[in-house]
Amino acid sequence: MGLSVSVGWSQNAEYSPYSRFGFGLVGTLQTPVSAGLGGMESVMFSNYQFNPNNPATASALGQTTLQASGTSTSLSMREGTASNATALYGSAGPIGLAIKKQGGSNTLIIGASPFSNSGYAITRTQEIDGIGMVQERYDGSGGLTKAHIGWAHTIKNKGYVSAGPNDSILIQKSVLHTGIQTQYLFGEVTRTAMLDVVDVTFLDHRARVESQHRSLSANIGVIYDHLLYAKYQGNQSFEKSASMRFGLLYTPQSNLTSEFLSIDETTQNLGGIDIPLDTAFFDSSDKFLARMPASWTTGMSLMFNHANGRRLAFGVEYGETQWGTASKSFDSHLQVDDMKWVRSSASRASLEWTPGNADRHHPTWGKGTYRLGISRVIQPYEISGSPIVANTVSGGFSIPLVGSRSLSRLHFGMEIGERSAGDGSLEETYARMHVGFSLMPFFKNNWLKERLYD
User: Fold this and answer.
1) CATH class assigned to 2-445
2) Please, what is the average pLDDT of the chain?
3) 259: Cβ–Cβ under 8 A, 6 or more apart, which residues?
4) Can you tell me the distance from the alpha carbon of 187 to that of 365, in angstroms, rounded to the nearest whole number?
């Protein structure tokens, strides 16, 4: 069997053959910060970029923030010892706007991000007795996008800690970040299978399924920061501290409205163009009602801060999505032969480090924040009883935007991983680069800030 893959820059973010099932590969794109942290969503995030999958992270922003990103992926595929293919392609990433008054406790969130992507092109050639050379082609395109609007709120609790032997100081001892958002999932996925007989005395066959999907749901996030200890000197200057963070993210099950168009037809190739001759089967299902799965993610992290700006944080998280339960309501067009919908899961761990003493280092790199992460993600379907598993190692950093006098940042994330069904069939290795920015207003032009004079 030979593999061929389309190459280019488009809405597709995955040209993997594994994207041919269901809605495509789910959750393949994140923000650069999240990608550098192994895809973590519940407890590890930045004060300069929020995670569109967790509305509670927007409450940690210091002020109004506009963010956007893009990705570039190199994908290598191998099946056995004789078949291999490579592809290089790119896509836009999540985009969002968080509107927040500096020092305020409320944040309005607006944005859109990819949810799933499908973009494969597979070719297989074989010899059949009595017919001759036969070529099979499988193509797919499209994907689902998630638009969201939400609200985040911060609740702070203060308390006294000792500052030297005979004094104390009032500081922030705990913070509760909460967020809720409405998500509208929409998009179209197209799958085409073509049987092309080289001998022109035989007719060819083409089967095409077009599906459109829409779903409205909610997404809730809660993050709790608790101060373990804080040390202040006798002059009430900060020395060091440690805190613990817990997070929970939940999306309930929701309705899925789908429309399907399925057509099987005989064709003949004339001058490189497949001309339809006769329709063998046609089916159109309007507004089929199914269910999208419930999901949850929880995690914890530890953070250590020093007076010179040095910061070290590490965290772990685990999450599940109940695709196996929701798939019982799916239309037959989402139930592919030899494929079974199952519960998906994701295990992640990450480390984040800010060096501190920025004035002693490079004026740009010395003020950066650096990240490492690992993840193991099980996709929501099994092929011939084998689950599809992706293991990824990632890293990234955020640096100040050169020339900007605001807190704006440039963000980079890099993922290197492998994905396979574990049965010795198709094995993939991929390297993905995420590049993005977050823009914040200069303090003299800060939005939503009351003027002291007219």
Assistant:
1) mainly beta
2) 86
3) 211, 212, 285, 286, 287, 288
4) 40
